[in-house]
C-alpha cells in the first residue's frame, strides 16, 4: 500500500460524505442498567439480608462444632464413611466442620455482594499511575459511597452476624496449636537434680569427693542415677548438665555463691542462658567461662553473672554439700530455671 493509499484509507467517506473519518470499531457503550429485584423491593432485600445472616451464623455454629470435634472425638477412633471407607473420625470431623465454616462465610459474602451491594457499572478512563488529587478524592468518595450502599451501617443484624463469624471462625484454629506437642507444664523449671543426689563425674561415672576437685580445674557432672544407656539421657542432660569449679574462698565475690558451695567448690549449670549451648571454656585466672556459640561470658566467682555477650540471665547455681559418706551431693534443684529465658518463666 502506497503512502497515498494509506491517506485515502484514513478518510473513507461515511454516508456518502467525502473526507469524514470513520471508526470501524466504534464504542457501543454500556447497556442500560437493569435494577435487581432487591433494588426495588425492600421485602426481597430483607430476605437476602436474612439469607446472608443465616450463612454467617452457620459459620459460627460450624466453628463451635470444629472445637467440639477436637475435644470430644478420641484421636484413635475410626469410622466407616461412604465412599471413603474407614477414616479417622476426628480428622474427618475437623475437616468437615472447618470446610463448612469457610464455605458459609464465602457464600454469605458472595450473596451479599450480588444481591445487596451496589452493582451499578462505573466506567473509568485510563489515567497515569500517579492519580491527580481530584481522582484520589473521587476514590475516597466512591469508597464511602460503597460502604453506605453496602448497607453495613444500616443493616445491623447482617453486620453483627458477619463480625461474629469473622471473629469466631478464626478462633477454631487456636485449638490446633495443642497438637504442636505436650504442654511443658513446669518441666522447664525443674531438672533431675534433687536433695541428696550425689554429683557423678561424667568422665569415670564415679561419685565426686571434695578432694577430687582441684583449684583452677573444671569438672563436669551428672545427677546420680542418670545413665547414658537411658532412653531419655539426652533430654535429661539438656537441663541437668553441671560444671564444677574450685576457687579460693577469698576470691569468691558473691556471698550467696560461697554459702551454696563447699570450701570454694561451686556448681553451676553448664547450659548457656542465651540459646542453650553447652559451656566448656574456662579461664582459671579470671574464673570466667565462655560459651563457644555466641561468646557469652559468665563470672563464676560472682554468682555466674553475665559480663559479656547476648545472654540475659546469670548461670543458675546448684546448692551442694558433703554427705555422711564424704561425697558431694545436691541440696535441691537449681535456684533458677535452666537455659534460655522464656516469657512464662516465673523467675
Automatic annotation (TrEMBL):
It holds the Pfam family QcrA_N. Residues 1-14 have a biased composition (Basic and acidic residues). This is Cytochrome bc1 complex Rieske iron-sulfur subunit. Residues 260-329 form the Rieske domain. InterPro entries: QcrA_N (IPR045603), Rieske_2Fe-2S (IPR017941), Rieske_2Fe-2S_sf (IPR036922), Rieske_Fe-S_prot (IPR014349), Rieske_Fe-S_prot_C (IPR005805). The chain crosses the membrane at residues 51-73, 93-113, 160-177. PROSITE patterns: RIESKE. Belongs to the Rieske iron-sulfur protein family.
